Amino acid sequence: MSVVSQNNHGWVVDACSLIDRCYSPCILLRDSLKSHVKCRFKRQCFHIFKSHFSVGSSVNGGNSHMSEKTCKLSKRRKRKHSELNQGEVDSQAFHEKIRSVILEGTKSLVDSARSLGHLTEEADPVKEPLPFQECGLVALCEMAKELPLVDDEEQEEWVQSLVAEDGRTSHLDLFSRVTENREDCATVVSLMGEEYVIPAHTAFLLSDFTRIQPLVHYGSRFGLIVIDPPWENKSVKRSRRYSSLPSTQLKRLPIPNLASSDCLVVTWVTNRPSHLRFVRDELYPHWGVKVVAEWFWVKVTTSGDFVFPLDSHHKKPYEVLVLGRYSPSSDNSTSSLEIPSVPVGDQRLIVSIPSALHSQKPSLSEVLKPYIGAQAKCLELFARNLQPGWTSWGNEVLKFQHMNYFTLTPTDDETSKNCTTPSSC
After folding, report:
1. What is the per-residue pLDDT across 289-321, written as a single tens digit (0 to 9) for each?
2. 1-32 core/surface letters (b: 16 or more CB in 10 A; e: else)
3. Which CATH number is 3-417's, of 3.40.50.150, 3.10.20.90, 3.55.40.10, 3.30.2380.10?
């Protein structure tokens, strides 16, 4: 169970165990031969034992413990930035508004998790290096943009099977067709000369905005759409980890062509108030989405402390999610799914140990399940990994599916050979 504890403040989620459940059982395909393996995401990716900056970030007291050196640095930084710009003023005002919600809710949830034996791990003296794999498919995706666009009427098929009847995965068009893994097991396959772990009953399209039409022609209407935009910020520009996107470009996402009536739309937002205002006041109204709640993802260490000091001026230990419901216009009506009567509560927290891999978010599937119809189809936009039963789109959609992020071990367990889709991922 990935939700290890919950109360009226929200949930504590074990993101790593959820990933593992999505890949059990697993089949390894090599040279058309099948073998059964146990697949686990590498544990060191979630070994966050210490708060950053060597600052005590206890959920019991915010920033109550600071080293003398850190205090001096904080004072110098405060003097240097005594004159805040408007963005910084807005950020501070937003933080003060939600500070007690974050502090009190996190304390309650962490205490609940600890009573069940979770979030009690101390620092591990053995430090394993983090896996790293440059996603070569992103470069191929850029090259594919140079090819002429296929006319809608000329395209015979908008979808293809990951594994052919002969067990091979060659001759796949990853850039202009939606690829489906129709197997009942997660499958390790070779794509473009590299091995990737693909969950059961998942679909994906590797493309950017210029090649998104196969997703629209895929024919599915989704009851849940999760969006993780590559927001512009100074840190991303300096690190060049990924290509960012101007906020206004997000309006090009064809949400009305993808969403079913009453679809729950969830967008990850950075802590810049301008981004939050844009989503609430421009982006959602542009799509016909009504805001229903703001949630917060709170990042903690393995012992339950904030990964950053709660009042840090550099980075906060939380991120915002904006939840809304899509209502189609009268001339673009879609069949409505039966939506559960459970209200989407405001200011709920999702507390988890974050991945040490940049931009890897926890799955929201389990916490959002009560708010969507039982038969609702799920879609993630700007995805960097896959989930069973979901459709995913983005130019890095297979980033964290690369074999380098997993440990595979052979298994002779007969029960693992009976492939069944994970009940919840």
Report:
1. 999 999 999 999 999 999 999 998 888 999 999
2. ebbbbbeebbbbbbbbebbbbbbbbbbbbeee
3. 3.40.50.150
